[in-house]
From TrEMBL:
Domain of life, per lineage: Bacteria
Entry protein name: Gluconate:H+ symporter
Family matches, as InterPro entries: Glcn_transporter (IPR003474)
Record's bilayer topology term: Multi-pass membrane protein
GO cellular component entries: plasma membrane
NCBIfam families with a match to the protein in the record: gntP (TIGR00791)
Coiled coil: none
Organism: Pedococcus sp. KACC 23699
Length: 467
């Protein structure tokens, strides 16, 4: 959720420094905490913010951690998540509302729907998700895509699940498998893998993985979960939607949408190919920081989208102002999810899970996937899973060939996105944005992540047979 390697390592380091807690208390504590959250939200209809807060306290109480330390862990995770993801969600919501109110989202939707049949539309959305998700975190790409997903669903008459799941699959696959996304870059650095080979293998694995977990799985998930697109990004009065008489062109809209993508991609490439201290890298590192990139996108959108739609200063101000109230609940829930995750990390559950499988003697690629899966399930963080699994397996990588090390990176990446559930901020983002219940989110988003993870492992193992 943050942009530098040190920030990536902080959760894993915190877990390593956590006081030792017996496994007999730690595992039940995590399971009971998760059960309490699910029960409070589903049975007693408690707001997820309160459920996540009480779940965190439950974990600490059962594990025998001092309650003051539990509160410290929760507030630390809450604050860091709000500071990193919260500001991005706010800026993304501003850009998304501006995109919708200017008619720019309509232009993209009309172009996509006009050139795609009902059968090919999910595939087009998967491609868009993969493109947007390549250089940025899942949460940022999700925020940028939300208005497009909702409008495509409304215009095409398809369920938001059939349209949204393919886009989410593209986003998530990039998150776990393909550099220059930060997750794979961390594993590449830790395992000393070859960047070019890992990138090539990552694309080879990601394409069929996205196909299976995106458009193909969406056909099934759409039968289980059939919900209309929420009106979060709808223009006022959108029901029988009254379109603007003037709106920005497709080219101008695409330029605005891709502005943060290009800036973040520039930063990623500069970090790879230029030396530290290089003036170009320094500038691109600043411009490509997600906060700065999205802030620039909002400013660019005000001029390109706003001017293209003939919006005046007052209309632009109103659009930006109305973008924030609908996301207040989302910010609290996502931040509380970060607090719960930090509580689990600080108890040491990730290290415990890693110790269980480190000396199991199974296939290295399968072992890497299992380690990442278990840490992902325990902490809810793909980044923590990637960092921890890479650290555990680094000694084994030293004796492997260059292609095998790249496959090891991808196996860890595939495992790091397995079955997102209540301790993952992404779970709550999808639930709240799509207007789903916890059960519907599990049957769509969580299962999609599982299909993506398992199919990713299968394709990594198949690729391992020929390299």
């Amino acid at each position: 959720m943050t942009t530098d390697l040190f920030s990536f390592l902080q959760p894993a380091l915190a877990a390593a420094d956590a006081p030792a807690i017996p496994a007999g208390r730690l595992v039940p504590a995590a399971l009971i905490g998760i059960a309490v959250i699910v029960l409070l939200i589903t049975k007693f209809k408690l707001h997820p913010f309160l459920g996540l807060t009480l779940g965190s306290l439950t974990v600490g109480a059962v594990a025998g951690v001092a309650m003051g330390d539990v509160v410290t862990s929760f507030t630390k995770g809450f604050g860091s998540t709000a500071a990193s993801v919260g500001t991005l969600i706010a800026l993304g919501a501003m850009f998304g509302k501006l995109l919708a109110d200017s008619g720019g989202a309509d232009e993209i939707v009309d172009t996509i729907v006009g050139r795609s049949s009902a059968r090919t539309l999910p595939w087009a959305m998967a491609g868009v998700g993969a493109l947007i998700g390549l250089p940025m975190f899942f949460e940022i790409g999700l925020v940028l895509l939300m208005p497009v997903i909702f409008l495509v669903a409304r215009r095409s008459g398809l369920s938001v699940i059939k349209v949204g799941i393919p886009a989410l699959a593209g986003l998530s696959a990039m998150h776990g498998l393909v550099p220059p996304h930060p997750g794979p870059l961390v594993a590449i650095d830790a395992l000393k893998a070859n960047l070019g080979i890992t990138l090539a293998f990552g694309v080879l694995v990601a394409l069929p993985t996205i196909a299976l977990s995106g458009p193909l799985f969406a056909r099934i998930a759409g039968r289980w979960v059939d919900v209309p697109a929420p009106d979060m990004f709808a223009v006022d009065g959108d029901g029988g939607r009254e379109e603007r008489l003037e709106r920005p062109s497709f080219g101008v809209t695409l330029f605005a949408v891709l502005t943060p993508v290009v800036l973040m991609m520039g930063k990623a490439l500069a970090d790879i190919f230029t030396a530290e201290g290089n003036p170009v890298r320094t500038v691109l590192d600043f411009l490509g920081t997600p906060l700065v990139a999205l802030l620039i996108a909002v400013i660019v959108g005000m001029f390109t989208l706003g001017r293209g739609a003939g919006m005046g200063t007052k209309e632009l101000s109103t659009s930006l102002e109305k973008s924030l109230p609908p996301i207040a609940g989302i910010l609290l829930i996502v931040s509380a999810g970060g607090g719960f995750k930090q509580t689990l990390v600080d108890t040491g559950i990730g290290g415990l899970v890693a110790d269980w499988v480190q000396n199991s003697g199974m296939s290295v690629l399968l072992l890497a996937w299992i380690v990442a899966v278990l840490i992902r399930l325990a902490t809810g963080s793909a980044t923590v899973a990637t960092v921890t699994a890479s650290g555990i397996l680094a000694p084994l990588a030293a004796g492997m060939s260059t292609p095998e090390v790249s496959l090891l990176v991808l196996a860890i990446g595939a495992g790091s996105v397995f079955f997102s559930h209540v301790n993952d901020a992404g779970f709550w983002l999808v639930k709240e944005y799509f207007g789903l219940s916890v059960g519907q989110t599990i049957k769509s988003w969580s299962l999609m992540e599982t299909v993506l993870s398992v199919s990713g492992l299968v394709f990594v193992l198949l690729l391992g047979l020929v390299v």
